[in-house]
């Protein structure tokens, strides 16, 4: 009966704490999957607050201020760790006692979870799964710590304390320290992974729920109705408006930041007279502007897909900056995302009257999380890496010679105005077409200047004017099309755009670094 008691108390305590950690990690993971805030630690913490006398609560708030909740949860965790350690010590003698203790402890957690207002049966799941995972871990670790074969002196029954002598002599040891420690390390990893993953899943659900529940205000300045004929509606031609689900995504985020609009704020500071911090509610109360703007990525190769056009709704950046009071000498806005990414935007561009927005909506919906929910910047005419900060939380008014944005030391230009480009969508590169009449079509962009002409030539012949679709303004791309009587054989099709200032895009091929690719999009097709 004494067999397991050869495991020292510290080892039992370690097994108990690791088992407790695995229980909490599993509970957090399940809570993340099934939803709700059914984490037993939080529930126990809340129950402690509910059950404790008002005087104690006031003391805690007075003593710890806004950190009272953190202190409370920390206290709950310390108590949990002590109890788990005690159960582990108990489990050395008889695993069943430790397991029974875990069940009893789980019952307390369950009571705390189920007595929360609005709790349902599904809220029991994290605690139940957590207790089962903890029980399994505890018996597994105690099993690992127990020597599988104990050499006994002779074959006589009733050995005393099983003890193995170290080869070099010294203290006898009677339990498998190495197997316990490696098992405990595995348990710690599992506990941490479960907690992090569960937390990530949980905050994703919470932010998704907040996003779906949002009611968007009407724009104070609506976008003018789209003129007729912005979209030729040709099969295979990029639509004028990009659906949110089809919009390209470029960012450095391995895990998309989950930003709760209830806690989001934007700080405007730096070279200003009156630093400002606004909440999401404040932002929605401002007069909002709606505008059709085409975003483009500096990493878009000639003919590439990293451009998209949407109807954005947002507060004008210039208004907020004017309220903050710009100081002289400032020439850059350094914006920071919730995940630390930074963008450097020329101040004069944002202040020159164009629709530079803190956008909250995209094509009539709250911003998708991938596209910067709850708030992102959109500045017509600048590549995304110098203007379009998603999940933006901070705006510092500064100078290009003082501050540097994320991509600048990584080989990209500090300033990135969009270069005029045109793309052939139809026919597809390498396509085989029947000879005869066909349509060559695509999109062209020169944001904030506008596209005035698109020309096409086949096999190096004369440039021909394409017909242009309507546009609501200079900030979007523009569809173009040209009918072509294709003769049998191989053909090369080239395109070039001219902006509203009369500048035709250059034929010179340049790579995307440091400030955007140039050259003419060219496709070859075969006609039979
Ligand atoms: N927070 C954050 N914002 C960001 C980026 C980023 O990496 N992180 N990338 C920028 C770049 S390079 C581009 S092109 C646009 C792309 O916006 P989209 O993903 O909504 O299309 O976002 C910009 N905003
Ligand atoms: Mo980009």
Please provide a written account of the structure:
This protein has helices spanning 9-34, 40-51, 54-64, 68-93, 95-114, 124-145, 177-213, 280-285, 317-324, 347-351; strands at residues 164-165, 172-173, 265-270, 276-279, 288-296, 307-316, 332-337, 342-346, 357-362, 365-366, 376-378, 392-398, 421-426, 432-433, 436-445, 451-458, 464-465, 467-468, 478-486, 489-499, 522-527. By secondary structure, the protein is α+β, with helices and mostly antiparallel strands. Helix 1 (9-34) runs parallel beside helix 7 (177-213). The structure holds the ligand Nc1nc2c(c(=O)[nH]1)N[C@H]1C(S)=C(S)[C@@H](COP(=O)(O)O)O[C@H]1N2 and molybdenum atom. Molybdenum atom (MO) binds next to loops.
Q: Specify the biggest β-sheet.
A: 5 strands, mixed
How helical, in percent, are the residues? 25-40%
Number of strands: 21
Bound molecules: the ligand Nc1nc2c(c(=O)[nH]1)N[C@H]1C(S)=C(S)[C@@H](COP(=O)(O)O)O[C@H]1N2, molybdenum atom
Quickly count the domains: 3
- What count of helical segments does DSSP give? 10
Instruction: Specify the oligomeric state.
Output: single chain
- Share in β-strands: 15-25%
**Shape call:** elongated
Describe, in short, the structure shown.
This protein is of the alpha+beta class and 528 residues long. The protein has ten helices and 21 strands.
Helix and strand arrangement:
Elements: H1 9-34, H2 40-51, H3 54-64, H4 68-93, H5 95-114, H6 124-145, E1 164-165, E2 172-173, H7 177-213, E3 265-270, E4 276-279, H8 280-285, E5 288-296, E6 307-316, H9 317-324, E7 332-337, E8 342-346, H10 347-351, E9 357-362, E10 365-366, E11 376-378, E12 392-398, E13 421-426, E14 432-433, E15 436-445, E16 451-458, E17 464-465, E18 467-468, E19 478-486, E20 489-499, E21 522-527
Parallel strand pairs: 3-12, 14-21
Antiparallel strand pairs: 1-2, 3-4, 5-6, 6-9, 7-8, 7-12, 9-10, 9-11, 13-15, 15-19, 16-17, 16-20, 18-19, 20-21
Helix pairs in contact: 1-4, 1-6, 1-7, 2-4, 2-5, 4-5, 5-6, 6-7
Molybdenum atom (MO) binds at residues 250, 297-299, 383-385.
């Amino acid at each position: 009966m004494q067999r397991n008691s050869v495991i020292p108390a510290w080892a039992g305590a370690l097994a108990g704490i690791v088992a407790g950690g695995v229980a909490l990690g599993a509970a957090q993971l399940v809570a993340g999957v099934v939803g709700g805030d059914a984490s037993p630690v939080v529930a126990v913490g809340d129950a402690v607050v509910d059950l404790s006398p008002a005087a104690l609560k006031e003391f805690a708030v007075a003593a710890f201020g806004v950190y009272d909740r953190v202190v409370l949860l920390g206290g709950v965790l310390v108590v949990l760790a002590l109890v788990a350690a005690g159960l582990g010590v108990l489990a050395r003698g008889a695993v069943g006692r430790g397991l029974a203790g875990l069940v009893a402890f789980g019952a307390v957690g369950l009571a705390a979870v189920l007595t929360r207002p609005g709790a349902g049966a599904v809220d029991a799941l994290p605690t139940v799964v957590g207790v089962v995972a903890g029980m399994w871990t505890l018996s597994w670790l105690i099993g690992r710590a127990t020597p599988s074969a104990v050499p006994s002196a002779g074959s006589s029954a009733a050995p005393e304390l099983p003890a193995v002598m170290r080869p070099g002599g010294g203290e006898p040891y009677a339990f498998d320290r190495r197997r316990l420690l490696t098992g405990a390390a595995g348990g710690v990893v599992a506990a941490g992974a479960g907690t992090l993953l569960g937390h990530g899943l949980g905050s994703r659900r919470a932010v998704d729920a907040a996003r779906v529940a949002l009611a968007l205000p009407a724009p104070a300045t609506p976008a003018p109705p789209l003129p007729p004929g912005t979209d030729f509606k040709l099969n295979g031609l990029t639509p004028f408006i990009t659906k949110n689900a089809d919009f390209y995504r470029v960012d450095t985020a391995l895990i998309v930041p989950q930003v709760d609009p209830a806690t989001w704020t934007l700080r405007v500071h730096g070279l200003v007279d009156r630093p400002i911090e606004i909440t999401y509610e404040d932002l929605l109360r401002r007069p909002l502007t709606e505008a059709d703007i085409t975003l483009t990525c500096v990493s878009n190769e000639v003919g590439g897909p990293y451009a998209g056009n949407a109807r954005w709704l947002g507060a004008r950046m210039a208004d907020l900056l004017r309220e903050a009071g710009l100081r002289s000498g400032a020439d850059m806005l350094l914006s920071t995302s919730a995940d630390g990414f930074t963008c450097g935007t020329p101040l004069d561009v944002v202040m020159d009257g164009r629709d530079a927005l803190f956008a909250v909506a995209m094509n009539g919906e709250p911003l998708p999380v991938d596209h910067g929910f709850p708030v992102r910047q959109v500045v017509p005419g600048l590549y995304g890496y110098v203007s379009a900060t998603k999940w933006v939380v901070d705006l510092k008014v500064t100078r290009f010679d003082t501050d540097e944005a994320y991509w600048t030391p990584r080989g990209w230009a500090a300033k990135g105005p969009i270069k005029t480009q045109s793309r052939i969508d139809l026919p597809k590169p390498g396509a085989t077409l029947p000879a005869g009449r066909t349509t060559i079509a695509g999109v062209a962009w020169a944001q904030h200047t506008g596209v005035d002409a698109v020309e096409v030539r086949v096999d190096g012949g004369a440039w021909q004017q394409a017909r242009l679709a309507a546009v609501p303004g200079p900030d979007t791309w523009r569809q173009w099309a040209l009918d072509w009587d294709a003769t049998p054989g191989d053909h090369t099709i080239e395109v070039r755009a001219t902006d509203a200032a009369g500048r035709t895009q250059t034929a010179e091929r340049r790579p995307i670094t440091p400030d955007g690719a140039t050259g003419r999009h060219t496709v070859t097709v075969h006609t039979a």
